[in-house]
Amino acid sequence: MRQLFAADDGGVFHAYDIKKKLDRSVKAEGPIKSFAVSIDRLHYFIATKGSSEIVQYDILGKVIRRFQGHTGEINDLEVTVDRKFLISASADQTIKIWNLATGKMAISL
User: Which partner from 5, 23, 41, 71 sits 20 to 30 angstroms from 15, CA to CA?
Assistant: First the structure.
């Protein structure tokens, strides 16, 4: 793998290509609490501190979709290897599985 991913409290998500020495930064809507990157590295999913919303960005920083359904701050995010689902865990004590094709919540646990 030749990419590194990092986020900071200033709300900037960094996708750094080591080989090309290129930083594709995405400015989020606040300090970043959690993020996930799709296996193809073309989509970033970002949750900001204090927010119950997940925002999907493309590699150029364009907002693709917003996932809403949690009532507490998002603690963790993960994209399945097959790129079909986004899994989120929240302070509201739920885990939600989102269908990435539709943007709809598939399961709430």
Answer: 71
